[in-house]
Write a structure and sequence with these properties.
The chain is α+β, with helices and mostly antiparallel strands. It has four helices and 17 strands. The protein has a six-stranded mixed barrel. The protein has a four-stranded antiparallel sheet with strand order 15-16-14-17. The protein has a two-stranded antiparallel sheet with strand order 1-10. It is globular and about 60 Å long.
Length: 331
């Protein structure tokens, strides 16, 4: 019996490479030997616009928030794990998840849901949790709008398997279609391991792809890396370069109402939360929202917002006033 997720995959066959850019000099790094190779990557902590990000392996990640998309300006350029970005494939960028990983992204506004392979870092605009490829935004129905309220959930078993395959030098483009209950996962590990951040790793002040636009173009006609042999599932699709890619299928899920907030802080002490809410009144109708987290009582300070544009404006004003840790929350 096959996993239901296998019916939802899009073709994803990008070829190679990304740049890390120094924020001070805006100088793109060179692509080693011009090769087209995707690798497993976690990376060191890095800082962008005053905010630190700590990449780590996380196979239980689930988050709701705002998605954006990227396309022509990065098409044919390197992604953070060493592939070539193809805006017409179903890939995505995330600030901290291990690369590659597989996540389900659901548009909470229309119920459309697809599975994407995360192979890049970003987005670095405040208030965004994932950057979809142009094709991903089209299939989720928000390309013309620009943003959408989404839920992002890691597929744990599948992500562990492609992470281990990438560690072994396997090309993971299209690899996920072979992952199901009964078929042997050719080239996949039997006992995946996690590496996480290296012990004693020093924070980096270099930023991945989205920090600036200083990039080098890379030819897609490069030598392919080792690829595991993939069986062709009994679903609609096509074969390209000896690899089976499923047709582009979107799952439709029920839609429920969601709200947008700008959250300035979360406190165990109610009085501290109320004090911050009062100080934030110039930015909007700041309120205290009680929440139980892991059996502990917290008090969140939030400003309700009517839409993404309004939340962006509030967030920018708060950041300019010194509240760099404020975030946009979708619930």
């Amino acid at each position: 019996m096959r996993h239901p997720f296998i019916f939802l995959f899009l073709a994803m066959f990008a070829v190679a490479g990304c740049t890390e850019v120094n924020l001070a000099s805006h100088v793109a790094k060179k692509i080693p030997n011009g090769k087209s190779e995707g690798n497993f990557k976690v990376g060191n902590p890095y800082k962008i616009a005053g905010h630190w990000y700590k990449p780590q392996e996380d196979y239980s990640y689930t988050e709701t928030g705002i998605a954006s998309w990227y396309g022509p300006q990065f098409h044919g350029k390197q992604t953070a794990n060493g592939e070539i970005f193809n805006m017409n494939e179903l890939t995505a960028a995330h600030k901290t998840l291990q690369l590659p990983s597989l996540v389900r992204v659901t548009n909470l506004e229309n119920g459309r849901s697809v599975i994407v392979r995360v192979n890049d870092r970003g987005p670095f605009k405040r208030g965004r949790i994932i950057d979809m490829s142009k094709r991903g935004a089209e299939l989720l129905g928000f390309k013309n709008k620009g943003t959408a309220k989404v839920r992002v959930k890691v597929l744990a078993e599948e992500s562990r398997a492609i992470a281990e395959a990438a560690r072994r030098g396997k090309d993971t483009r299209g690899y996920e279609v072979a992952m199901n209950d009964n078929q042997p996962k050719r080239g996949a590990p039997t006992a995946p391991t996690q590496s996480g951040l290296q012990s004693g790793a020093q924070p980096s002040t270099q930023a991945p792809r989205h920090a600036t636009t200083g990039y080098q173009n890379v030819s897609a006609s490069t030598k392919p890396v080792e690829r595991a042999a993939l069986p062709a599932p009994n679903i609609p699709g096509h074969v390209q370069g000896g690899v089976f890619y499923p047709d582009q299928i979107v799952k439709q899920l029920p839609v429920s109402s969601t709200n947008i907030y700008v959250q300035a802080g979360s406190f165990a002490d109610r009085a501290n939360a109320q004090g911050l809410a009062q100080r934030l009144k110039p930015f909007g109708n700041a309120q205290v929202y009680p929440a139980q987290i892991g059996g502990q009582q917290f008090y969140r300070v939030r400003i309700p917002s009517a839409n993404v544009a309004n939340a962006d404006a509030i967030l920018d004003r708060m950041a300019a006033a010194g509240n760099a840790d404020a975030i946009i929350v979708v619930e």
